[in-house]
Amino acid sequence: MKAAITATAKYLPDGVVTNHDLERMLETNDEWIRSRTGISERRIMKDPDKASSFLCGEVAKQLLDKRGISAEEIELIIVATMTPDMLFPSTACLVQDIIGATGAWAFDLNAACSGFIFALNTAARFIESGAHKKVMVIGGDKMSSIVDYTDRSTAILFGDGAAGVLLEPAESEGYGILDARLYSDGTNGKDHLLMSGGGSLHPATHETVEKRMHFIHQDGRQVFKSAVTAMADTAAEIMQRNNLDAENIAWLIPHQANQRIIQATAERMGLGMEKVISNIAHYGNTTAGTIPICLAELDEQRKLNRGSNLVLVSFGAGYTWGGMYIKWQ
Ligand code: ACO
Fold first, then answer.
1. Which CATH number is 138's domain given?
2. What distance in Å separates the CA atoms of residue 329 and residue 325, rounded to the nearest whole number?
């Protein structure tokens, strides 16, 4: 039995921060940001009282509405996030509370930008084994809560947003999540993309605040090189394992970190950009949100047909990366 996506939903906060807004805060410019990243604007949750659980909760409510089911029917909620409201309780438990999914168990999964694919593959196992019939998988981050708006190398990249799916047993054979290859490399990844403060190694102190340890730090050039290679290699591996080619792939759904990484992945797959979804121009990098936001947009625009072959690929902190093959039901 395979697991299939039966509903999609997304939530982006209303606040828009354009490159021109950032020009007034940092030594940067619209032309540099657009040409180096593909980003023109990003969404920011401006209400300080609303965080990742709110973004993910809005997604969860829509998933129930779209599928026409009650919260009590949900058996498991997995939230992929690296910006939980608090270290504990998990954001998934807060989402459970928001929708009143009293019969579900719930947990968070942190694999940074690969969080959604990691969570989706985890959730698929619970469907395939017959343990559960209705699982919610939501990826979302309030990146503005950990972005240093005095650091031009990271401030330009990230936005807030969330999206998710409902996962159920596929109706017929040959549909749903058919393959996934997931990877991690802590040896090369641990020093290049991190937030060192606030965990058990460096709990919050005046010193950690002064040293700006509660913000993202990224060695962009190093991460870029690793991301291009990993995403392209994994996409090629997924194609080869599943006898996919540029002709029979309907959509590449890549993590939205940099338009140049997206293009390099598509080139390696031999895909024209008309088969690649990219919304990085409007949302920037929403971390665990990017891939499900893309899925939800394709679904809203009725661009997913029964039998469409989808290839999902991601790369993020850890390092973590992976690819997935879905035949749309
Ligand atoms: N505006 C203007 N100039 C800038 C800016 C800016 N915002 N940022 C950096 N620069 C300058 C640098 O100082 C540097 O100047 P120098 O040559 O005088 O030293 C120059 O531009 C080039 O800097 P690079 O860092 O080499 O620029 P690059 O082309 O690598 O682009 C970027 C930087 C966009 C961050 C890119 O490296 C990237 O996309 N990296 C990968 C991001 C990624 O995939 N992350 C993984 C997912 S995120 C997650 O998991 C949370």
1. 3.40.47.10
2. 13
Residue 296 near residue 8, CB atoms below 8 Å: yes
Ligand 1 pocket, 64 CB below 6 A? no
Whether the CB of 317 sits within 6 Å of ligand 1:
yes
223 lines ligand 1 (CB under 6 A): yes
Range of the domain at 283: 176-327
Residue with tokens 């168990």: 105
Find all residues with CB under 8 Å of 87, minimum gap 6, and list them.
198, 199
Length of the chain: 329
What pTM was estimated for this model as a whole? Answer: 0.97
Q: What is the pLDDT of residues 195-213, one digit of tens each?
A: 999 999 999 999 999 999 9
Smallest CA-to-CA distance from 67 within 164, 161, 1 is with: 164
Residue 221 CA to ligand 1 centre (angstroms): 6
pLDDT digits (tens, 9 = 90+) for 230-250: 999 999 999 999 999 999 999
CB atoms under 10 Å from CB of 219, counted, come to: 13
Residues 53, 142: one domain? yes
Number of domains in the chain: 2
Tokens of 19: 């490159």
Q: Which of 19, 56, 110, 113 is catalytic?
A: 113
285 is an active site residue: yes
89 half-sphere exposure, CB direction, 13 A CA radius: 10
